[in-house]
Amino acid sequence: IEDSVCSIVPDDHKLEVDMGDIGAEKLKNNGTTTPKSFQIRLQDCVFDTQETMTTTFTGTVSSANSGNYYTIFNTDTGAAFNNVSLAIGDSLGTSYKSGMGIDQKIVKDTST
C-alpha cells in the first residue's frame, strides 16, 4: 500500500528505450548520439490545483566523465560499459544529473 498522488502505469515500470545501433567511432572524443524520446505514464492521479510535478531519476553515477551522468550496464553480463555514460534530459536540451529534480508541466488526459 502506497500513499501516493499517482502510480506508474504497469507497462512503464521497466521502460526500455531502444537506442539503436551506435558505432564506437560515433562515441570517440566525447561524441554524442541523437536523443531518444520516452514517456513515463501515470494513472489514478489525484490533483487539486497542481500544475507541475517533479520527477527524480537516481542511479549509479558514471565515472566516464565529470557530468554526473548514468552508468550503462551490459544486460547480458551486468558489468558496466567502460567510458560510456547516459544523460537524461528534456526537450529543451537540458541534461539532468542523478538525484536532480525535473519539474514538468502536468498534461491531463481527458479522454474517457
TrEMBL record:
GO terms for cellular component: pilus. Residues 5-105 form the Fimbrial-type adhesion domain. Pfam families: Fimbrial. It comes from the Bacteria. This is Type 1 fimbrial protein. GO terms for biological process: cell adhesion involved in single-species biofilm formation. InterPro entries: Adhesion_dom_fimbrial, Adhesion_dom_fimbrial_sf, Adhesion_dom_sf, Bact_Fimbrial_Adh_Pro. It comes from Escherichia coli.
